[in-house]
Design brief:
alpha/beta, 10 helices, binds NADP nicotinamide-adenine-dinucleotide phosphate
Length: about 270
């Protein structure tokens, strides 16, 4: 369980929905809900909010049992565009309210990453959004948001996997009371699955390398959002609670981190997505 500042709990692991789309995408999301995921991560730019809504309805699960998070794109940072974006997401999802609305990328050259958060806070006031989050915000961006709004986002979703473990930013998040969510938590299979220390921890515990990596996130207080279209892997990626890594194993996996360990050139100071 992860805890937001107000005490609300989020499940240990969320489900990443990119790039699941179309009927097959709905089936994969439905299977994720059936095997036990209760947090779905989507975005306007994933172009699959309708599929998320359909999977939710077909699952028959009560609305309050599943958290849905979406993200406004870079082209919608201006205040009224951001509010419109949230309203359109709700329409596509078929929901009255989204649990978490995030700003997808800060796009610093446009200079509207604080305004975008303010717009989401306005959506929260209007009851369209339960919690406001950010994605790919740096420590500096977060501080500017706090200065302008008097509060930090409840969570910040950032690239985080063994080759790019984000140790400094996680520490800042802890100081600010911000939950860290990991995108590409498995490193899109480019992580060191078959080599030590992941392979050694897997051999010792009888878990798979992917389970070791996801458990490493949990033991660092990070909420991973793995994507899998395969029901067996979806299930395995949730089955982490009986697994315990030693402190040395956690430290050794963190030590795989490299300054150039990002999956692509996704430095939020320079990478922009509209
Ligand atoms: N905020 C952002 O800017 C941002 C950016 C990127 C991603 N995201 C979010 O993060 C989510 C996850 O990221 P991601 O899809 O890039 O990377 P990921 O979850 O690290 O990796 C997904 C890949 O790993 C495979 N996989 C999953 N479970 C596995 C297992 N147990 N054993 C072996 N392979 C396994 C999947 O294949 P199969 O499907 O074939 O199982 C898929 O190819 C996305 O869906 C999205 O929601 C956010």
């Amino acid at each position: 369980m992860h805890r937001l500042r107000d005490g609300t709990t989020l499940p240990p692991v969320g489900f990443g929905t990119y790039p699941l789309r179309g009927p097959e995408g709905v089936e994969a999301m439905l299977s994720a809900l059936e095997v036990g995921y209760r947090y779905l991560d989507t975005a306007v730019n994933y172009e699959n909010e309708q599929e998320v809504g359909e999977a939710l309805r077909r699952s028959g699960l009560p609305r309050e049992e599943v958290l849905v998070a979406t993200k406004i794109p870079g082209r919608s940072h201006e205040r009224s565009a951001a509010v419109d974006s949230v309203e359109q997401s709700l329409e596509r999802l078929g929901l009255d309210r989204v649990d978490v609305a995030l700003v997808h990328w800060p796009n610093p050259s446009r200079g509207r990453y604080v305004e975008a958060v303010e717009a989401l806070l306005e959506c929260r006031e209007r009851g369209l959004v339960r919690f406001v989050g950010t994605s790919n915000y740096t420590a500096g961006h977060l501080r500017e948001v706090i200065e302008a709004t008097g509060e930090a986002p409840v969570l910040n979703q950032v690239e985080c996997h063994p080759l790019f473990p984000q140790s400094e930013l996680i520490e800042v998040h802890e100081q600010l009371g911000v939950l860290t969510q990991a995108w590409s938590p498995l490193g899109k299979r480019q992580a060191q699955y078959d080599a030590d220390p992941v392979a050694g921890a897997a051999a010792r515990t009888g878990a798979s390398p992917a389970q070791v990596i996801l458990r490493w996130h949990l033991q660092r207080g990070v909420m991973p959002l793995p994507k899998s279209a395969t029901p067996e892997r979806q299930r395995a990626n949730l089955d982490l609670l009986d697994l315990e890594l030693t402190g040395d194993e956690v430290a050794a996996i963190t030590a795989l981190g490299r300054p150039d360990g990002r999956l692509f050139d996704g430095d939020p100071e320079t990478h922009e997505e509209m």
